[in-house]
Write a structure and sequence with these properties.
The chain is α+β, with helices and mostly antiparallel strands. The chain is 37% helix and 21% strand. It contains 13 helices and 25 strands.
Length: 442
C-alpha cells in the first residue's frame, strides 16, 4: 500500500450509507411493472445488473421508501445472504429502489470517484474482510456500521482517474462484447424460429414467393408443402422425434466421487456456479482418475437441468480448458457434426419450457428437468440437407459468440490481475498533476 495515499474509511468519504426496506412490510405489494426494485439476485459477481431479475413497485411505494431511492453513481454492496456483490448505479436503471439486503453508499464526489470506489468494493481483500465480519443468524449479515468503518487507502483524484481509466477500459470492452453476443444470439434465435417453428420458408414457397433473405440454393432445400403427422403438420419429408433422441446426454458424476481438493491439483470441477462465472478461487479441483465421459472439453455443449428454475436451468458452451463435470449438468454430444448448431439452438429455444417444467417440480427453491421430460418433449427434425446449411449459417454465429466469450474470459482475467494491485497501490500509474508539477519546477 502506497504511503502517499490517504488512509480513510467508507463513512468518511460518503455522504450517505444506508439500506432499504421490503415494501410489503409497509403495505406496498410488488407489481407487474413500475419502479425498478433491486434485490441481491439481480446483482452479478462481476458487477452487472440482471434486469430480468428486477422486481417492480409503484411510485407511491417508491415515495414511501424515500430513504433508499437510488441515485446515479450510488454504489450498491450486498450485506445479507451473499456478502460482497457490488454495482454502480447508472441512469439506465433509474428510477430504482432496493431492500435491506443491499447497502447504498453515496460517494462524496469531491474526494472519491464513484467508479473507483466500486473497484475498491470489488477488490477480493475488501470482500474477504467483509465476509469475515459477518454475523450468522438465519443468513449471513454484514452491518452498515461495519461498512462505514471499513478502512480503505485513497489516492488523489488524478490517480483515481488513471486507475479507473485502466480498469474501466477493460470493463467497457467486456460490456461491448456481451452486448454483441446478445445481438448475435437474437439473430440465431430468429432464424431458428423462422425455419423450424414457424416454417416460414415452406409457407413462402407454398405462396409462390421466394423466402425472405434466402438465396435460391438454400430455398431449394425446403419443401413447398406440409404433411400431417401424429403431432400436427410438418414440412414434407421432415420427421418428429423426442428431444432426448437428438443427442447423447451424459450426466456428470457425484461431487464427492471427485474427492475435491482446494490445492488446485488436477482439473477443476464444474458445477452450475462455474458455468456462470468460470473457474474462480472458489472452484474445487480433483486429481482422481475418473472415467473419460466426465471430462469436458473446450466448446462442449452443457445443459444444466437442476437448480433454481429461473437462473440455473440453461444451456452453455464451455469456453475454458478441460475440466471435470459435476452431476446435475448434462454433457450434450451431437450424433453428427452437422447437427451441432441445430441441437444447441433447440436447447436454447426451449429454455422457457425447461423453466416451467422445473418450476412445476420445484422443492426448497430448486427444480429440475428429468430425462422423462426430455423424452416427452417432441421436436421437428429437418432433412440432413437443411441441417447442413443451418449448421453453416448459424454455426458461424455460434462461433463468433464463442470467440467473444473467450475474449471476455481473457479480459476478465486481466482485470482481476490488475485490480487488487492498482487498488492497493502495489502497482502505480503516472500521476498527471505531479508530472506537470515536476516539469514546471525544472
Amino acid at each position: 500500500m502506497s504511503s502517499e495515499w490517504t488512509q480513510t474509511t467508507v463513512g468518511d468519504i460518503s455522504t450517505l450509507v444506508t439500506k432499504g426496506t421490503t415494501p410489503t412490510t409497509l403495505g406496498h405489494p410488488f407489481q407487474a411493472r413500475g419502479v425498478n426494485f433491486i434485490k441481491v439476485e439481480a446483482l452479478t459477481e462481476d458487477g452487472r445488473f440482471l434486469r430480468e431479475k428486477f422486481m417492480f413497485i409503484s411510485e407511491a411505494a417508491n415515495q414511501a421508501l424515500s430513504r433508499s431511492q437510488l441515485c446515479r453513481n450510488d454504489i450498491l454492496f450486498t450485506i445479507a445472504g451473499t456478502i460482497g456483490r457490488t454495482a454502480l448505479v447508472t441512469d439506465e436503471i433509474l428510477p430504482a429502489n432496493t431492500n435491506q439486503a443491499i447497502a447504498i453508499v453515496r460517494p462524496n464526489p469531491s474526494v472519491v470517484r464513484p467508479r473507483f470506489l466500486r473497484y475498491v468494493f470489488s477488490n477480493p481483500s475488501f470482500t474477504r474482510n467483509a465476509q469475515s465480519r459477518t454475523v450468522q443468524s438465519v443468513q449471513s449479515n454484514f452491518s452498515l456500521g461495519e461498512l462505514k468503518q471499513a478502512k480503505i487507502a485513497l489516492p488523489d483524484i488524478a490517480e483515481q482517474d488513471q486507475i479507473v481509466k485502466i480498469l474501466g477500459t477493460i470493463d467497457d470492452r467486456i460490456a461491448l462484447l456481451r452486448e454483441t453476443n446478445i445481438t448475435l444470439e437474437a439473430i440465431a434465435l430468429t432464424l431458428f424460429r423462422s425455419w423450424f417453428v414457424d416454417f416460414d420458408p415452406v409457407r413462402a414457397k407454398m405462396d409462390g414467393r421466394v423466402p425472405d433473405g434466402m438465396d435460391e440454393a438454400t430455398a431449394a432445400l425446403f419443401p413447398d408443402e406440409f404433411e400431417s403427422k401424429e403431432t400436427g403438420v410438418l414440412p414434407k419429408g421432415w420427421s418428429v422425434c423426442p428431444l432426448y433422441d437428438l443427442a447423447t446426454y451424459i450426466n456428470g458424476a457425484a461431487y464427492k466421487a471427485f474427492q475435491p481438493n482446494g490445492d488446485r491439483r488436477g482439473l477443476p470441477i464444474i458445477k452450475i456456479a462455474e458455468l456462470k462465472a468460470g473457474v474462480t478461487n472458489q472452484t474445487a479441483f480433483s486429481d482422481v482418475a475418473m472415467p473419460e465421459k466426465y471430462r469436458i472439453q473446450t466448446k462442449d455443449i452443457l445443459f444444466s437441468w437442476s437448480g433454481n428454475p429461473d437462473t440455473s436451468i440453461d444451456t452453455f458452451v464451455w469456453a475454458n480448458d478441460p475440466a471435470w463435470l459435476n452431476q446435475h449438468i448434462f454433457r450434450v454430444i451431437p450424433y453428427a457434426p452437422n447437427e451441432r448448431a441445430f441441437i444447441l439452438q433447440t436447447l436454447r429455444f426451449l429454455r422457457p419450457v425447461f423453466t416451467e417444467l422445473a418450476r412445476n417440480k420445484q422443492t426448497t427453491g430448486l427444480g429440475h428437468v428429468t430425462v422423462a421430460d426430455m423424452k416427452r418433449l417432441m421436436v421437428s427434425k429437418p432433412t440432413d440437407a437443411v441441417l447442413e446449411i443451418f449448421n453453416i449459417k448459424v454455426g458461424n454465429i455460434h462461433e463468433r459468440i464463442f470467440k467473444n466469450e473467450q475474449q471476455i474470459l481473457t479480459l476478465a482475467l486481466l482485470r482481476d490481475v490488475f485490480l487488487p494491485r492498482l487498488i492497493s497501490g502495489q502497482l502505480r500509474v503516472p500521476n498527471p498533476q505531479k508530472a506537470l508539477g515536476s516539469a514546471h519546477v525544472n
